[in-house]
Amino acid sequence: MRLESKNAKPGDEDEVRPEYDFSAGLRGVHAYRFSKLSSDEAFVNGYWQGNGFEVGGFSKRELHDHKTPDFRLSHSGSEVALCEVKSFQKDTWLDEQMQYSADGEVVGGFRPDPIFNRITNAIHTAYKQFESVNPDRKLLNFLFLVNHDSSAKPADLDRVLTGMEDPLHGCFDPTCMEFSEGRIREEKKKIDLYLWMDSVKPGQLAIRKMHFGDSSTQQRVCELLKIDPKRVKQIPPAA
């Protein structure tokens, strides 16, 4: 799979890029069109409407018969895409151990990094939701990953999707192949665009990274979302 990422230099991932600020999603009634939305879904809903998309839901029958994505997206009168929002909250494993430990007790220890499992589970679940209502992929599939965990970084998405340590910057050590080549090996290619967002501060989200999961739909996505192709960098193949 050939993945593309937002053109970035080493260290850029920790910078806030105002042009991708999601805080505008709070303004007006657009962000609260659906009363049962989580706050992250409301931000994304407001973002789409603020950029000229019509955001719709699913019928009661569809909701009953299928595990659906969060939104249908229409533009210029035509349905064009589906959108699913997955949120990553702060990992409280160590905090909970400290809270319930006795004075002087040593807590913590080694364990697998949970963020890789969280990303993998999000991709797998989203794929199932897209597949249930868009099996022929006539519509584009967009997955928004909203991160509220300071220990998780945009580069973690690179690792899960490619299996490599830091392919964007030329580090092809196969550190996460069990995730990239596991159950999402084929599923990850059926999601046309991944967007990783960090919580900058209360009420503000910013896009840190974009990936195109399917190179055959990249131009279509760029045209629809008015993404400048010059801002897209191809992750090079492993040497």
Folded structure, characterized:
This protein is α/β, with parallel strands linked by helices. The chain has one domain (4-234). The chain contains 7 helices and 8 strands. It has helices spanning 39-50, 60-65, 93-99, 114-133, 154-162, 177-180, 218-225, and strands spanning 4-6, 54-56, 71-75, 78-88, 140-147, 193-201, 204-212, 232-234. The strands form 2 sheets. It has a 6-stranded mixed β-sheet. Strands 1-8 form a two-stranded antiparallel ribbon. A hairpin with a 2-residue loop joins strand 3 and strand 4. Helix 4 packs across helix 5 (154-162). The longest helix is centred in the middle third of the chain and has 20 residues, at 114-133. It is globular and about 45 Å long. Mean pLDDT is 78; it is low at 5-36, 92-97 and 106-111.
